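Hi there, hope your week has been kind to you so far. Would you mind checking whether the tokens look sensible for this chain? I owe you a coffee for this, so here goes:
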Amino acid sequence: MTEQSVSFSSDRTNESLSNNLALLMKHNNVSESELARALGVPYNTIHRLISGHTSDPRISTLKSIAAYFNVSLDTLLNPIELIKNPFTTNNYPKAVPIISWEQVSNNKPLSLGNYQNWANWLPIPLASIDNLSQNAYAIESRPSMYPRFPTGSFFVIDPECKPIDGDLILFKIRKDGAVSLRELMIDPPTMKLLPIIQNSDSLNFVASEHEIIGVVVLSMHQPRRINCTRL
């Protein structure tokens, strides 16, 4: 299936996109390379949009940019009044690094805020989260989590969020460092870790044996990345 693109009917629309994107990046202190890395698109794609040299950008790229900056497509594409700038946003992160389960399980500190340390980033719609911490990150669902979580699901984990009853939490087994995703059930004085994988057993939370390392504050589904050998 061929991906849809947007054909600009006038140079004015193209100019509006270029100007609006430049303004968004300036207000949010994001460079072209940082935006490209966060969205997982080539640097040249962002550079051509900024310079106004793309007359038929992909709709998926525009949607990702709009979601990243928490604006609508209309706002991104149409002329704006500079007196009242709709692009002003808060300073919360707008993308989080995607890290592996192995990286979560080891005890090395993660420099999450450094763009150069991570190849893949997940754009986060700011409307979804009011106070996401600077130490938040994303991990991809495991195949065994299907069907509750479809293949290609991502969990946004905030290690600074206090868990409450019913939360999905990421926890570590202190003995071997193994990491698992569970549903937290609090029934004082006990806490249980309920499985999200079929036919798995529940666990009684014991502070000396288990450590809650983060709370799932958002789950997002993205199409599965295709890895195949071309004919």
Remarks:
- The chain has two domains: 9-82, 114-221.
